[in-house]
Please model this.
Amino acid sequence: MSHAGNRSRNGTNTVNVSTVRPLLRVLLAAGAFALALGARPVIAQDERAAAAAAVGDLQQPAALVAALPDASYADKQAICERLVQTAGAQAGPVLRALLDGRLYSDAHHRVVVVEGESESETVPIHDPFSGAALGSAASADLSRIGSNNMLRKTLKGLLAQLDLADVDPARRLAAVQESLRSLDGATIDALRARRDQEPDDKVRRAIDVGLATADLASDSADARLAAVQKLDGELSPEVYNALQALVATDEAGASREADERVRIAARQALSHIDAMRSVYGAVETLFFGLSLGSVLVLSAIGLAITFGVMGVINMAHGELMMLGAYTAYVMQQILPQHITAATLLSVPMAFVVAGVAGVAIERGIVRFLYGRPLETLLATFGLSLILQQLVRSVFSPLNRSVSTPEFMSGSWVVNDALSLTWNRLYIVAFMLLVFVALLLVLKRTSLGLKVRAVSQNRAMARAMGVRTEWIDALTFGLGSGVAGVAGVALSQLTNVGPNLGQSYIIDSFMVVVFGGVGSLWGTLISGMSLGVVSKLLEPYAGAVMAKILVLLFLILFIQRRPRGLFPQKGRAAEG
Amino acid sequence: MTQSKSLLGTLWTERGSRAFYAVLLLAAVLVPVLNLGVAESSALHVPTYTVALLGKYLCYALLAIAVDLVWGYCGILSLGHTAFFALGGYAMGMYLMRQIGTRGVYGDPLLPDFMVFLNWKELPWFWHGMDTFWFAMLMVLLVPGLLAYAFGWFAFRSRVTGVYLSIITQALTYALLLAFFRNEMGFGGNNGLTDFKDLLGFDLQKPGVRVALFLASALALGLAYAACRAVIASRLGRVIEAVRDAESRTRFIGYRVENVKLWVWVFSALLAAVAGALYVPQVGIINPSEFAPIGAIEIVVWVAVGGRGTLYGAALGALLVNYAKTWFTGALPEVWLFALGGLFVGVTLFLPQGIVGLIAQLQARLRRPAPPKEASA
Model:
């Protein structure tokens, strides 16, 4: 069995190495290095005896790595340092693998990397430099190249050095921030060495913070004081913890920090940082509130047209949003390779799908029930049940996941205390876009003029030659289409499932009623303020309680102002 | 004397009402006899499961009558009657919970199981006294009644009407749904109250007790029906219908519309609460999903299907729709929501008077040009 396994593994090996070779040549800058690497399997076997002899003689990175398995810990340390000198950034993956205990030597005495833990008999192996797959090896044939504390410390220092010297400033910044998390002698030395040759301002500042944090543990009180003053206003949690250690007291109540001046400065710095943090915290809450508000406005704005302008209670509004969300899902299934394009395309698609459904609803049901709002409510609610079950039968009762396009994932890190997720930022922007578009349609187009005319005085509009029936259908289609577009936005935030619409319908009615039926601006303001208020309440009352309080507030508010924040005035209000 | 005679008369005048009483009485006699008196092997035997199911339907019919009273007669479309129903149910559930005593899983003599599970040390204040039957029954009426009174007092005085009122009633029951889902509320959170053992010392699992509960539901339904008929036939009933048809005009004539509405509203809420209290021991559980706004809309559909504005129509609609639901969810679960949704759309479009209206139309057509005697609104 094992023989057969070995043979097949060798077979794949030769294939892989030959395909990998040209790739490596491209990757590696030094031509000599590339040649050495190409010859590596041969060297690996020949150099076996030489490895133990003297590390000092070895110059080529491949040879250095090949010497690792049989070297003592002290020799390994020397090998690693030499490796960094000769191979530069190329040594990074090898050192990291050694540090993480992923570096092994296999049956042919080659040095390989094994990714992840595996219980199976054979595991995939990789080239330590390039990470290219080298086929697989039997677990029994592999022996780990060990490390001890001393070696690991050296490795960390070397890796910090390597990362700090990276060409990419973002990588360097990340390296500095990473080193802040575990400051020790080696990393501090690396930081200090890097400080003066760093060209990037941001990275240099981060290095200064790191060095100052290290100085907090200095023996000289003046150095500590200077460090504290330098760190005033820094928001990272490491700095905060380090400063807090200065003002802390031990069990006996005595201060850990001996110098009075340092203690006072540290206390001031902390209160300053606390104040800044609470400001940024408030900004973050506001942002969460605005993004929740945007979701509310998006889900309510279509309703503001069908309910507000036409006076039709459309309980199937949530299901039209659901149709929009499923359109996004279907588009992504059709174009699985182009998620971003599919998501962007699904916006107009959803508008069309939901809009056509809306026109069909108006022609098929709603038009028979004008002037009977309670009956309309019931009929459209029945329709919402049918649509839900339809989706359940066609797709499945389970939630479907809609992928997030590349440009919407991740977050915008303003500083250590404040980072805003892109998808929420885009939702706010998208909501404003939809709102403005809708406002323009209603105020600047001939359709909008007719819509407003019909809603204000149907008989007069008809007398002026407006085809009111046609306008009714188009208005309903417009409101429904906007619901579909909102559904696409929701698909980026929540699960897409048959119950998606139901969970938003009550909220969106509340937003419209609170804002004042028939007022787009009212819907915008009420949605945003309800979003912000619920997010403000959440830390004190919890998410569910906040929602209950908002509902109760709305119930009471309607008692005071039954027509909402911005009531319609004039003839239309009397309907 | 004449007063009482005319009152009795009003209860009997409608043909539909007479049919309703007759059917109810028949069921109240037949079901217990066929359940307890007939051997289980017999084809005529009504299993205990069916008795409980029928009892449940009767509670629904009571609930439908309550909704019909406010919607069909007073024009207030409530999408929040599940709130009163569920609150009544919870009050009954709390009593039943306290009756479990040491027979719970944790055997705590005072605390219900879920409180022991949540590591609570003391009984919350609102659970005190709920182990006495009369007090619990008082709460069944008092809590939903007060809620309805407070809500109605605010809403009707501020002249919140029509769709706005419907939406805030929905918000009310939705808020309660969210509140009762929280464990901190002290009502068992998500799981609600269940595992009931006995009521007034009678084992809830015994067929005889089931039959007694069925009879109690039938009695409650009959009494509520009679009470509603009496209200509608009275002078107050005329004002109630006037409010539905022309609210402003009624106010201008000099009636205090908000008081009339408030009265009907609270009365209807009490009926819903009683229905809830009878419902809980028969189904054996009460949890927050009973508050769900969709449930409240379903009640409205029962009424619309049966015939809005006729009490017997509401009861008929509740029975038919719920029987259809039981049948569909058993036989064709996929189709149930299609059927229910289609029912909503179909009834509103084609049967504005519901099944009762359809029957009246057919009769009118059969009797040739004879004009329909009573114009059911």
In short: Strands of chain A lie at 103-105, 111-114, 122-126, 133-138, 143-144, 411-415, 418-421.
